[in-house]
Amino acid sequence: MTVLYAIARYLGVAGCFCLLLLWHYEGIPGAAKLKFPEGWPIVGGFGLVDVPLIGDLTVGKVESYAAEQVRITKATMVSAFEYEALSAQFDKERDLRLKGSLALEEYRKRADAALSAEQSDNDRMEQEIADYEAKLADANRCRITPDLRRWLQSK
To answer: What are phi and psi of 35, to 5 degrees?
Structure first.
């Protein structure tokens, strides 16, 4: 104690005040790295920083502010990375949906074209059968029976 009193007398009031301010802002050097041994009851594995009031005094304002800023930055970076990942996934799903709708539209066009081609073939065949019936009727030949009609349609 006498050593501390001698240092305080040597530094004076202004020097002691400067040391207190330095301790307040910078903390005790290396105090953040001190940990209690694992075998100690209750406090084992904790450090001076983990004790509420002592932790604030030993770490200092600069390091606690920096630690707080690191925590905030990490939180915002995680949310930014999550946002980028979700945005990429959303873009991929939108592209897949667009490609699917284009493929569906193309399929519908082809199906409509095939249906209209089949309908025109049926109309053409019906016209040929009607022309053939008219030709046979003009020649006074046999009339087309339903069996003969089915046979002609199958050709």
So the answer is: -130, 145
Reading the chain (155 residues) residue by residue, the pLDDT tens digits are 788 788 888 888 888 777 776 666 666 666 666 666 666 655 555 565 566 666 666 666 666 666 777 778 887 777 778 888 889 999 999 999 999 999 999 999 999 999 999 999 999 998 988 888 788 777 766 666 778 778 878 86
3-class state of residue 35 by DSSP: strand
CA–CA dist 122, 101 (Å, integer):
31
Alpha helices in 1-155 (DSSP H): 2-26, 52-59, 61-138, 146-154
Model confidence pTM above 0.70: no
Of the candidates 115, 126, 118, the residue with the CA atom closest to the CA atom of residue 153: 126
Which residues does 66 contact at the CB level (< 8 Å), separation at least 6? none
Letter string b/e over residues 12-49, b meaning 16 or more CB atoms within 10 A of that residue's CB: eeeeeeeeeeeeeeebeeebbeeebeeeeeeeeeebbb
